[in-house]
Specification:
It is a single chain. The protein is α/β, with parallel strands linked by helices. Helices cover 38% and strands 15% of the residues. The chain is elongated, with a radius of gyration of 24 Å. It starts with 8 loop residues before the first strand and ends in a 24-residue tail after the last strand. It holds the Pfam family CoA_transf_3. Keywords: Transferase. This is L-carnitine dehydratase/bile acid-inducible protein F.
Amino acid sequence: MTGPLAGIRIIEVGVMLAGPYATMMLADLGAEVIKVEPPGGEISRQVGDSYFASLNRNKRSVCLDLQSADGQAKLAALVADSHALLVNMKPSAIKRLGLTYESLRRHNEKLVCVALTGFGLHGGDDPAFDYVIQAATGVAAMTGDPDGPPTLPGYSAADNSTGLTAALGLLAQIVSGRGGQVEVSLRDVMLSQLNYRAAAYLNDGAHPRRYPFGAHSYYVPAQLFPTAEGYLALFITHDGFWRAFAGEAAIEGFATMAERAAARDEVLAVVSAALARDTAANWEARLKPLGIPAAAVRTLPQALAQTPEMVVQAGEFRLVGSPVKVTGYQPEYRPAPVFETQSS
Protein backbone atom coordinates (compact mmCIF):
# COMPACT_ATOMS: atom_id res chain seq x y z
CA MET A 1 0.00 0.00 0.00
CA THR A 2 1.20 3.51 -0.75
CA GLY A 3 1.60 5.93 2.13
CA PRO A 4 -1.40 8.05 3.21
CA LEU A 5 0.41 11.18 1.98
CA ALA A 6 1.38 9.76 -1.43
CA GLY A 7 0.91 12.43 -4.09
CA ILE A 8 1.59 15.31 -1.69
CA ARG A 9 4.67 17.34 -2.55
CA ILE A 10 6.31 19.49 0.11
CA ILE A 11 9.23 21.85 -0.28
CA GLU A 12 11.42 22.25 2.79
CA VAL A 13 13.78 25.15 3.39
CA GLY A 14 14.81 23.88 6.78
CA VAL A 15 17.82 23.99 9.04
CA MET A 16 18.99 21.90 11.96
CA LEU A 17 16.10 20.17 13.73
CA ALA A 18 12.54 21.52 13.99
CA GLY A 19 11.76 22.04 10.29
CA PRO A 20 13.59 18.97 8.99
CA TYR A 21 11.96 16.80 11.68
CA ALA A 22 8.51 18.04 10.62
CA THR A 23 9.01 17.18 6.97
CA MET A 24 10.71 13.86 7.74
CA MET A 25 7.60 12.75 9.63
CA LEU A 26 5.55 13.63 6.53
CA ALA A 27 8.03 11.92 4.20
CA ASP A 28 7.81 8.73 6.28
CA LEU A 29 4.07 8.78 5.58
CA GLY A 30 4.59 8.92 1.83
CA ALA A 31 4.86 12.63 1.01
CA GLU A 32 7.44 13.70 -1.54
CA VAL A 33 9.74 16.10 0.28
CA ILE A 34 12.21 18.23 -1.64
CA LYS A 35 14.84 19.73 0.62
CA VAL A 36 16.19 23.02 -0.71
CA GLU A 37 19.79 23.49 0.37
CA PRO A 38 22.03 26.53 -0.14
CA PRO A 39 25.45 26.35 -1.80
CA GLY A 40 27.62 24.50 0.68
CA GLY A 41 24.71 22.47 2.01
CA GLU A 42 22.35 22.76 4.95
CA ILE A 43 24.30 23.65 8.10
CA SER A 44 23.36 20.50 10.03
CA ARG A 45 25.47 18.45 7.61
CA GLN A 46 28.42 19.90 9.52
CA VAL A 47 27.18 18.50 12.84
CA GLY A 48 27.70 14.89 11.79
CA ASP A 49 26.48 12.30 9.32
CA SER A 50 24.29 10.42 11.79
CA TYR A 51 22.73 13.69 13.00
CA PHE A 52 21.79 14.69 9.46
CA ALA A 53 20.56 11.19 8.63
CA SER A 54 18.29 11.14 11.69
CA LEU A 55 16.35 14.17 10.44
CA ASN A 56 16.43 13.93 6.66
CA ARG A 57 15.71 10.38 5.52
CA ASN A 58 13.17 9.79 2.74
CA LYS A 59 13.81 13.20 1.15
CA ARG A 60 15.52 14.35 -1.98
CA SER A 61 17.65 17.45 -2.16
CA VAL A 62 18.24 20.32 -4.58
CA CYS A 63 20.85 23.04 -4.26
CA LEU A 64 19.41 26.49 -4.92
CA ASP A 65 20.92 29.88 -4.21
CA LEU A 66 17.74 31.66 -3.17
CA GLN A 67 19.59 34.96 -3.11
CA SER A 68 20.02 34.77 -6.88
CA ALA A 69 17.50 35.33 -9.66
CA ASP A 70 18.18 31.84 -11.00
CA GLY A 71 17.53 30.26 -7.61
CA GLN A 72 14.28 32.17 -7.21
CA ALA A 73 13.14 31.13 -10.69
CA LYS A 74 13.79 27.47 -9.90
CA LEU A 75 12.00 27.80 -6.56
CA ALA A 76 9.00 29.28 -8.38
CA ALA A 77 8.92 26.26 -10.70
CA LEU A 78 8.90 23.93 -7.70
CA VAL A 79 6.22 25.94 -5.95
CA ALA A 80 3.93 25.85 -8.97
CA ASP A 81 3.66 22.08 -8.68
CA SER A 82 3.73 21.62 -4.89
CA HIS A 83 1.18 21.51 -2.09
CA ALA A 84 3.19 23.17 0.64
CA LEU A 85 6.40 24.91 1.60
CA LEU A 86 7.80 24.68 5.12
CA VAL A 87 10.58 26.98 6.24
CA ASN A 88 12.35 27.44 9.56
CA MET A 89 14.60 30.47 9.53
CA LYS A 90 14.69 33.90 11.11
CA PRO A 91 11.63 35.98 10.11
CA SER A 92 13.78 38.57 8.34
CA ALA A 93 15.38 35.84 6.19
CA ILE A 94 12.00 34.27 5.40
CA LYS A 95 10.69 37.62 4.17
CA ARG A 96 13.90 38.62 2.39
CA LEU A 97 13.98 35.35 0.45
CA GLY A 98 10.28 35.57 -0.44
CA LEU A 99 9.28 32.38 1.39
CA THR A 100 5.84 33.60 2.49
CA TYR A 101 2.44 32.94 0.99
CA GLU A 102 2.10 36.59 0.04
CA SER A 103 5.25 36.34 -2.06
CA LEU A 104 4.59 32.93 -3.57
CA ARG A 105 0.83 32.91 -4.17
CA ARG A 106 1.27 34.28 -7.67
CA HIS A 107 2.86 30.95 -8.59
CA ASN A 108 0.29 28.76 -6.82
CA GLU A 109 -2.85 30.08 -5.09
CA LYS A 110 -3.35 26.80 -3.23
CA LEU A 111 0.15 26.65 -1.82
CA VAL A 112 0.33 26.22 1.96
CA CYS A 113 3.27 28.15 3.45
CA VAL A 114 4.36 27.18 6.96
CA ALA A 115 6.74 29.50 8.79
CA LEU A 116 8.37 27.83 11.77
CA THR A 117 10.10 30.50 13.85
CA GLY A 118 11.11 31.29 17.40
CA PHE A 119 8.52 33.93 18.18
CA GLY A 120 6.30 34.30 15.09
CA LEU A 121 6.79 35.91 11.69
CA HIS A 122 6.43 39.33 13.28
CA GLY A 123 8.17 38.47 16.54
CA GLY A 124 11.66 39.59 15.64
CA ASP A 125 14.95 37.83 15.01
CA ASP A 126 16.11 37.06 18.54
CA PRO A 127 17.95 33.70 18.62
CA ALA A 128 15.47 30.92 19.36
CA PHE A 129 17.41 27.77 20.09
CA ASP A 130 15.66 24.96 21.94
CA TYR A 131 17.30 25.49 25.33
CA VAL A 132 16.76 29.26 25.14
CA ILE A 133 13.05 28.74 24.52
CA GLN A 134 12.75 26.31 27.42
CA ALA A 135 14.34 28.91 29.66
CA ALA A 136 12.14 31.72 28.32
CA THR A 137 8.81 29.90 28.67
CA GLY A 138 9.14 28.66 32.25
CA VAL A 139 9.91 25.05 31.41
CA ALA A 140 13.40 25.08 32.87
CA ALA A 141 12.25 26.93 36.01
CA MET A 142 9.73 24.22 36.88
CA THR A 143 12.08 21.32 36.17
CA GLY A 144 14.60 19.78 38.54
CA ASP A 145 15.03 19.24 42.26
CA PRO A 146 13.44 21.93 44.48
CA ASP A 147 16.79 22.74 46.07
CA GLY A 148 18.79 22.53 42.86
CA PRO A 149 19.19 24.69 39.78
CA PRO A 150 16.71 24.83 36.87
CA THR A 151 17.10 21.76 34.68
CA LEU A 152 16.81 21.00 30.97
CA PRO A 153 15.90 17.60 29.54
CA GLY A 154 18.49 15.54 27.74
CA TYR A 155 16.98 16.04 24.29
CA SER A 156 15.53 18.85 22.15
CA ALA A 157 11.99 18.93 23.52
CA ALA A 158 11.04 22.34 22.09
CA ASP A 159 12.37 21.68 18.59
CA ASN A 160 10.76 18.26 18.31
CA SER A 161 7.41 19.43 19.68
CA THR A 162 7.36 22.42 17.34
CA GLY A 163 8.22 20.25 14.37
CA LEU A 164 5.27 17.96 15.04
CA THR A 165 2.97 20.96 15.54
CA ALA A 166 4.13 22.49 12.26
CA ALA A 167 3.40 19.22 10.45
CA LEU A 168 -0.11 19.26 11.93
CA GLY A 169 -0.71 22.85 10.83
CA LEU A 170 0.56 22.09 7.34
CA LEU A 171 -1.73 19.10 6.90
CA ALA A 172 -4.73 20.93 8.36
CA GLN A 173 -4.42 23.70 5.79
CA ILE A 174 -3.91 21.25 2.94
CA VAL A 175 -7.07 19.40 3.98
CA SER A 176 -8.98 22.69 3.96
CA GLY A 177 -8.29 22.97 0.25
CA ARG A 178 -7.14 26.55 0.65
CA GLY A 179 -3.71 27.99 0.31
CA GLY A 180 -2.43 30.39 2.91
CA GLN A 181 0.11 31.27 5.56
CA VAL A 182 0.52 29.10 8.65
CA GLU A 183 2.69 30.23 11.56
CA VAL A 184 4.09 28.04 14.33
CA SER A 185 6.59 29.32 16.89
CA LEU A 186 8.72 27.49 19.43
CA ARG A 187 7.60 29.87 22.17
CA ASP A 188 3.89 29.37 21.53
CA VAL A 189 4.20 25.59 21.28
CA MET A 190 5.99 25.30 24.61
CA LEU A 191 3.49 27.59 26.34
CA SER A 192 0.67 25.49 24.87
CA GLN A 193 2.25 22.33 26.25
CA LEU A 194 2.15 23.80 29.76
CA ASN A 195 -1.66 23.54 29.50
CA TYR A 196 -2.79 22.53 33.02
CA ARG A 197 0.15 24.21 34.74
CA ALA A 198 -0.65 27.47 32.96
CA ALA A 199 -4.39 27.09 33.63
CA ALA A 200 -3.75 26.60 37.34
CA TYR A 201 -1.87 29.90 37.46
CA LEU A 202 -4.21 31.84 35.14
CA ASN A 203 -7.38 30.77 36.97
CA ASP A 204 -6.30 30.00 40.52
CA GLY A 205 -3.10 31.98 40.90
CA ALA A 206 -1.18 28.76 41.63
CA HIS A 207 2.52 29.28 40.93
CA PRO A 208 4.25 26.15 39.59
CA ARG A 209 6.54 24.55 42.14
CA ARG A 210 9.07 21.78 41.88
CA TYR A 211 8.81 18.58 43.86
CA PRO A 212 11.59 16.05 44.55
CA PHE A 213 12.02 13.26 41.99
CA GLY A 214 9.85 15.09 39.45
CA ALA A 215 6.65 14.47 41.42
CA HIS A 216 3.34 15.38 39.81
CA SER A 217 1.63 18.48 41.20
CA TYR A 218 -1.79 16.79 41.51
CA TYR A 219 -1.38 13.03 41.80
CA VAL A 220 0.21 11.28 44.80
CA PRO A 221 2.21 9.09 44.47
CA ALA A 222 3.33 9.93 40.94
CA GLN A 223 7.09 10.37 40.60
CA LEU A 224 10.43 8.58 40.58
CA PHE A 225 11.34 6.48 43.62
CA PRO A 226 14.71 5.00 44.60
CA THR A 227 14.53 1.25 45.13
CA ALA A 228 16.92 -1.42 46.38
CA GLU A 229 18.54 -1.13 42.94
CA GLY A 230 17.68 1.55 40.42
CA TYR A 231 14.80 3.99 40.20
CA LEU A 232 11.13 3.27 39.54
CA ALA A 233 8.60 5.58 37.90
CA LEU A 234 5.26 5.03 39.63
CA PHE A 235 2.16 6.92 38.47
CA ILE A 236 -0.94 6.42 40.62
CA THR A 237 -3.71 8.57 39.13
CA HIS A 238 -6.84 7.08 40.70
CA ASP A 239 -8.01 5.07 43.67
CA GLY A 240 -8.21 1.78 41.76
CA PHE A 241 -4.50 1.94 40.98
CA TRP A 242 -3.80 2.77 44.63
CA ARG A 243 -5.76 -0.21 45.94
CA ALA A 244 -3.89 -2.58 43.65
CA PHE A 245 -0.52 -1.07 44.49
CA ALA A 246 -1.17 -0.87 48.24
CA GLY A 247 -2.16 -4.52 48.28
CA GLU A 248 1.04 -5.57 46.53
CA ALA A 249 3.23 -3.29 48.65
CA ALA A 250 1.48 -4.11 51.96
CA ILE A 251 0.46 -0.50 52.63
CA GLU A 252 -2.66 0.46 54.56
CA GLY A 253 -4.73 3.64 54.53
CA PHE A 254 -4.83 6.71 52.26
CA ALA A 255 -7.74 5.23 50.32
CA THR A 256 -8.77 8.31 48.35
CA MET A 257 -6.99 10.74 46.08
CA ALA A 258 -7.91 13.60 48.39
CA GLU A 259 -6.41 11.81 51.39
CA ARG A 260 -3.20 11.09 49.57
CA ALA A 261 -2.86 14.68 48.33
CA ALA A 262 -3.47 16.07 51.83
CA ALA A 263 -0.87 13.73 53.36
CA ARG A 264 1.69 13.93 50.49
CA ASP A 265 4.81 13.71 52.68
CA GLU A 266 3.48 10.84 54.76
CA VAL A 267 2.35 8.88 51.71
CA LEU A 268 5.68 9.34 49.98
CA ALA A 269 7.57 8.19 53.05
CA VAL A 270 5.50 5.02 53.30
CA VAL A 271 5.75 4.26 49.58
CA SER A 272 9.50 4.94 49.56
CA ALA A 273 10.02 2.50 52.44
CA ALA A 274 8.01 -0.18 50.67
CA LEU A 275 9.77 0.24 47.32
CA ALA A 276 13.18 0.12 48.97
CA ARG A 277 12.59 -3.56 49.75
CA ASP A 278 12.95 -4.69 46.13
CA THR A 279 14.66 -3.66 42.90
CA ALA A 280 13.14 -1.40 40.26
CA ALA A 281 13.14 -4.23 37.72
CA ASN A 282 11.34 -6.56 40.12
CA TRP A 283 8.79 -3.92 41.05
CA GLU A 284 8.02 -3.34 37.39
CA ALA A 285 7.54 -7.08 36.89
CA ARG A 286 5.29 -7.28 39.95
CA LEU A 287 3.15 -4.22 39.19
CA LYS A 288 2.58 -4.49 35.45
CA PRO A 289 0.38 -7.63 35.65
CA LEU A 290 -1.82 -5.65 38.06
CA GLY A 291 -2.27 -2.90 35.48
CA ILE A 292 -0.37 -0.36 37.58
CA PRO A 293 1.59 2.28 35.62
CA ALA A 294 5.21 1.63 36.58
CA ALA A 295 8.55 1.32 34.83
CA ALA A 296 12.16 0.98 35.86
CA VAL A 297 14.32 3.87 34.72
CA ARG A 298 16.28 2.69 31.70
CA THR A 299 19.17 4.13 29.76
CA LEU A 300 18.66 4.90 26.08
CA PRO A 301 20.64 1.80 25.02
CA GLN A 302 18.44 -0.33 27.28
CA ALA A 303 15.26 1.23 25.90
CA LEU A 304 16.36 0.67 22.30
CA ALA A 305 17.31 -2.94 23.07
CA GLN A 306 13.78 -3.56 24.35
CA THR A 307 12.11 -2.06 21.26
CA PRO A 308 13.95 -3.53 18.27
CA GLU A 309 10.87 -2.99 16.09
CA MET A 310 11.46 0.78 16.30
CA VAL A 311 15.01 0.56 14.94
CA VAL A 312 15.13 0.79 11.14
CA GLN A 313 17.84 0.82 8.50
CA ALA A 314 18.08 3.84 6.20
CA GLY A 315 21.06 3.37 3.96
CA GLU A 316 24.12 2.90 6.14
CA PHE A 317 22.46 4.31 9.27
CA ARG A 318 20.35 2.65 11.93
CA LEU A 319 17.68 5.11 13.06
CA VAL A 320 14.50 5.26 15.11
CA GLY A 321 11.55 4.74 12.76
CA SER A 322 8.26 6.56 12.40
CA PRO A 323 5.96 6.47 15.44
CA VAL A 324 2.88 6.62 13.20
CA LYS A 325 1.57 3.16 12.31
CA VAL A 326 -0.87 2.87 9.42
CA THR A 327 -2.52 -0.49 8.80
CA GLY A 328 -1.31 -1.96 5.53
CA TYR A 329 1.49 0.56 5.04
CA GLN A 330 5.14 0.02 5.82
CA PRO A 331 7.44 2.98 5.18
CA GLU A 332 10.41 2.41 2.93
CA TYR A 333 13.24 4.06 4.82
CA ARG A 334 15.53 5.63 2.26
CA PRO A 335 18.76 7.36 3.27
CA ALA A 336 19.12 11.09 3.65
CA PRO A 337 20.04 12.75 0.34
CA VAL A 338 23.64 13.21 -0.65
CA PHE A 339 24.41 16.88 -1.21
CA GLU A 340 24.76 17.76 -4.88
CA THR A 341 26.33 21.13 -5.63
CA GLN A 342 24.62 21.28 -9.03
CA SER A 343 20.98 22.41 -8.71
CA SER A 344 18.25 20.55 -10.54
